[in-house]
Amino acid sequence: MEYLFDTANLEDIRTYGAIYPYTGVTTNPSIIKKEGKINFFEHCREIRRIIGDDRTLHIQVTALKAEDMVKEADAILDKIDGEVFIKVPVTEEGLKAIRALKKKDIGVTATAVYTKAQGFLAMEAGADYIAAYFNRMENMDINASSVIGSMAQMIRMWDYKTQILAASFKNMAQVNAAFEAGAHTATVQPDILKTAVNMAAIGKAAEDFAKDWRSVFGDVKIYEME
Ligand code: E4P
To answer: NCBIfam families given for it (predicted)?
Structure first.
């Protein structure tokens, strides 16, 4: 079970990276848009500098035609680094691009996945990750847990190396449901992750323990005791 950050915000990656266990960063053109008209390649290189080489960085192509997707992937790998996972929407052109990229042994994250069929086809095309769009499925009255569960079952049954990277979350209940359904990883905006440990009851419990300690020992910390 792994968490990734679904953001391109450098400050958020630095701040929340020191708090939450995370194994990578995902972006898409809409996430990049939130950062304004940045120097795209330099910004992505800075994300890599922050997260280091041991975490995964997933960057999406913007083209709609397979040939252009592959050219964009080549530019991303050339100008950012060769370890980036290229996110490709699972359309017909996307499947064509995924197969071409995997022929060149390039890491691929199949994205914009709403259906079991898209997931199964992406696995068979060789995708390393499948970004299953949890909230967007729910918005369309598609049972997201069932879709993820079926993909997880196929991966186990046929021993695919593909991992399910659940995405598109609006709350932690959806993230937990994705893991329970069999997702290996989930990419989550830090604002949503924060809600997991920022409930009033959790803060109060910590404060009550501190208060009980102070009532006996005053402001002396454990590391100050003989
Ligand atoms: C990440 O890989 C996805 O592109 C992202 O989670 C989609 O999120 P959205 O449905 O909020 O746009």
So the answer is: PRK12656.1
Share of the chain above pLDDT 70, in %: 100
CB 24 within 8 A of CB 58: yes
Atom of ligand 1 nearest to the CA of 135: 10
Q: Among the atoms of ligand 1, which is closest to the Cα of residue 87?
A: 2
Nearest to 145 by CA among 155, 128, 186, 137: 137
How many angstroms is it from 148 CA to the middle of ligand 1? 15
Other beta carbons less than 10 A from residue 48's beta carbon? 17
Q: Whose CA is nearest to atom 1 of ligand 1?
A: 167
Find out whether 62 and 91 touch, Cβ atoms under 8 Å: no
Pick the catalytic residue: 37, 87, 204, 221?
87
Confidence of residue 47 (pLDDT cuts 50, 70, 90): very high
Q: CA 156 to CA 81: how far, in whole Å?
A: 31
114 CA to centre of ligand 1 in angstroms = 12
pLDDT of residue 52: 98
Assess contact for 85 and 56: CB atoms under 8 A: yes
Helix (H, G, I), strand (E, B) or coil at 65: coil
- Active site includes 87? yes
Distance of CA 65 to CAs 29, 70, 117, 121, 125, Å? 16, 9, 21, 18, 17
Whose alpha carbon is nearest atom 6 of ligand 1?
A: 168
Q: Cα 170 vs. chain centroid, distance in angstroms?
A: 13
**Residue 32: its pLDDT value, please?**
98
Give the distance (Å) from ligand 1 centre to CA of residue 43.
Answer: 19
